[in-house]
Amino acid sequence: MAGDLFKAFKEPVFVTRPVLPDLKQYTARLEQIWESKWLTNQWHQHEMLEDRLAGTLKVPLLSLFNNGTTALMLACKSLRITGEVITTPFTFPATPHVLTWNNVKPLFCDIHPVTMNIDAEKIESMITSQTTAILGVHVFGTPCEVKKIQEVADLYGLKVIYDAAHAFGVEIDGVGIGNFGDITMFSFHATKLFHTAEGGALTFKDPLLKNRLNLLKNFGIKGEEEVVMPGINGKMNELQAALGLTILDIYEEERRKRKVLVQKYRQGLKDVQGITCLQEFSGIEGSFQYFCVRINEEAFGKSRDYVYEELKKYNIYTRKYFYPLCSQYNYYGHLPSASLSNLPVARRVVKEILTLPLYGELSGGDVEAICEILIHLGRGKL
């Protein structure tokens, strides 16, 4: 029972907390907007944020959007993706949904047992005459096998799209994660390490995509009296951009704090039988956006779902991220690629993963307390 050995937190400890800048600094940027009397349509705050983010992410070209889902939807549209796309079932609903909105059929590929990303070794066997692209997700900021995926894509003439919603600031041997594939999406939702309350971006190398995306996200309007394609309204406004610029000033400090907390989690849980922290890889600069563990029921003595519910008694709110699999949704469950036999690893992983609280305002003592509670939950010690 809660309180027998450990006291519950006085205030709820959620899985994350939005990074908020100094209000005066944000107000100063709002004053600039009020002076300009220009609230949207890609004005000064928007332009400054695009430039600064391109430098931060180490990418040649970047385009901002009102949210990550719109960005990913228009990524598919800009690359003229049709037919079928091979993707992962272990992701947020937006990933397969953007395919559906583009009248594209998702083909669910099983995931790697360690990285939990799409298994690059299984992609080739799923390619059909209708396949036009691969949509990978850098789950929890761990990069996909970008080299192998590109080799398969080049062999079969496929486009490569990456969902980097979890991977802001991730680098592979010093190269920004947004440089791989044909196009990469970043989400700037309020739950993300860097955010604009709502927002997103696409990064890419092809200059022609910049113009095409600008048209697609602004109703296809080329000039005052010329509309050249059926676009939508996907623009990021000045208020969002101003918030992003202000948060970008404190992003590195927030990231540093989270990195310290992640190492404290790893230290506290390293010898716990049945709890596995996500693997760290040489040459990879992580995002420190989330901290996740896998709970093996047989070894730990309690299931992931049991731990998830018990932690609530201590005012600790974790997340079964991503549960259920996208392939288990009613809308996609009928697809042959969603079958149990096709996704054995994903079906196992989705029952084990648990995202623990991680944000800069969390103290080292808080993390130690969470680790101690987790340890004692095993084998019914609490």
Structural features, described:
The chain has 382 residues and is α/β, with parallel strands linked by helices. The chain contains 13 helices and 15 strands. The strands form 4 sheets. A 7-stranded mixed sheet has the order 1-9-8-5-4-2-3, sandwiched between helices. β4, α6 and β5 form a beta-alpha-beta unit. α1 packs antiparallel against α8, α2 packs parallel to α8 and α3 crosses α7. The longest helix has 19 residues. The mean pLDDT is 96.
Keywords:
382 residues; alpha/beta; seven-stranded mixed β-sheet; three-stranded antiparallel β-sheet; 15 strands; 15% strand
Summary, kept brief:
The protein is an alpha/beta fold.
Q: How far apart are the termini?
A: 6 Å
Strand order of the largest sheet: 1-9-8-5-4-2-3
Q: What class, by secondary structure content?
A: alpha/beta
The chain-level mean pLDDT equals: 96
DSSP strand (E) fraction?
A: 15-25%
**Shape, per Cα inertia axes:** globular
Alpha carbon gyration radius = 21 Å
Q: What is the number of E strands?
A: 15
Number of helices: 13
The largest sheet is: 7 strands, mixed
**Helix content range:** 25-40%
Low-pLDDT segments, ≥5 res: none
| Succession of helices and strands | HHEHEHEHEHEEEEEHEEHHEEEHHHEH
Secondary structure elements and pairings:
Layout: H1 23-36, H2 44-57, E1 61-65, H3 68-78, E2 84-87, H4 94-101, E3 105-108, H5 120-123, E4 131-137, H6 146-156, E5 159-163, E6 171-172, E7 175-176, E8 183-187, E9 200-204, H7 207-216, E10 221-223, E11 226-227, H8 238-248, H9 251-269, E12 275-277, E13 284-285, E14 291-295, H10 297-300, H11 304-312, H12 344-349, E15 353-356, H13 364-377
Parallel strand pairs: 2-3, 2-4, 4-5, 5-8
Antiparallel strand pairs: 1-9, 6-7, 6-13, 8-9, 10-11, 12-14, 14-15
